[in-house]
Specification:
With 192 residues, the protein is of the alpha+beta class. It has four helices and eight strands. The longest helix is centred in the middle third of the chain and has 17 residues.
Length: 192
């Protein structure tokens, strides 16, 4: 499949039973800033970008860059929303996406985060399943990864629950948010 990624039709909305994933769009910055600010204590140990509360303006800048990257097929971010009974998106709950894309190999990495009061309700697992189907069925993925700190037991549990196999742990792979070396667990699924 040697199609220029810019020509690949990628849905901007993915529907699950309890969640709706929407591609970034201008105007969501203020809502994103609120969700991140309310989630800082939950995210701070794991996410370098979640160390300080963002402003509505800084989050709007991030959302517009994510939208541009989605259109250019450089990074495929989605926001996670609760699904209302009529199927429409409700409250923003977090973020997810297909990152670190290698279009030649067709390799993608799924990342995710969720606001604390929505944790444990299946939204993240559903988002991972929706993105896994998108990657393998629509984008002809050969490999999909989830990388996380092995101490982040909830993140590891999502990967395992969604059928990703632990391939190994890279020791002292990255600097953690505190500046000390941290390990990275690599979970993956490959095409059959």
């Amino acid at each position: 499949m040697n199609v220029d990624p810019i020509l690949i039709d990628i849905p901007e909305r993915l529907d699950g039973e309890r969640s709706v994933l929407l591609a970034p769009r201008a105007g969501l910055g203020a809502e994103l800033a609120v969700v991140i600010t309310q989630s800082l204590s939950h995210l701070r140990p794991w996410m370098p970008w979640a160390q300080e509360a963002p402003t509505a303006e800084s989050s709007e800048t991030v959302v517009r860059r994510m939208q541009a990257d989605f259109i250019a097929r450089r990074d495929l971010c989605f926001h996670i929303f609760a699904r209302r009974s009529d199927g429409s998106p409700g409250r923003m709950l977090g973020g997810t996406g297909l990152h670190r894309i290698d279009w030649d190999l067709r390799r993608f990495e799924i990342g995710y985060w969720i606001r604390p009061e929505a944790a444990g309700q299946g939204h993240v697992s559903e988002a991972v399943r929706l993105l896994t189907v998108l990657a393998f069925d629509r984008l002809a993925a050969r490999r999909v990864e989830i990388r996380c700190d092995p101490r982040n037991l909830k993140s590891c549990a999502v990967a395992q629950r969604c059928g990703f196999e632990l391939e190994g742990v890279l020791r002292n792979d990255l600097l953690g948010v505190d500046g000390s070396p941290r390990d990275t667990a690599i979970y993956a699924r490959i095409s059959a």
